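Protein in question kept in full:
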Amino acid sequence: MKKGYICFVFLFIVLNSYSQILQSEIDRVKTSASKDFIEKNIVGSWTFEKLTNSEKVQIVKQTVILDTIVATITIDRPSYLFNKNGRYKITRLDNTVDEGEWKYSEKDKMLYFFFDKPAYNIPIDKVSPELLKKLQDENMIIEFTKNAIEIHEITSERLVLIEYCNDGYYLIYYRKTT
């Protein structure tokens, strides 16, 4: 029992340290641009350009392994439209659209998205009513009303967002189209 507890504490300390190191690295690469500069330059349509790892090596495809299934995925990300009035539209690859309000927090250095319609961890519109009820009863459905992302770089023509991944972070490059 004591040995198991010591292993648990050690593992907790290691994971906590890794998390702090990763957050420190993310904080180091976040933009230092002012809120006014970001709010002025983010307005417009943004189209995905490329994805890189933290070393800025471009990633074109990823291999995903799920049990015995191996799939190769071509990298792509949704398009963004930021309006001056604080509204946004995210158009995903399957042409679904998320809309809501956006706000940049200079204190947190985070770009927040507040959804008009909540998002869920499962496609609730594609699940039978019986299964949906069961999942709700078991507290298996998570409702999301907002999301946040960090900005690495922003200019009048380029937006680079930070995305967390298993081994650190990715940089997602966008170019302004309007």
Confidence is low (pLDDT under 50) at residues 4-18. The longest strand covers residues 143-154. The chain has three helices and eleven strands.
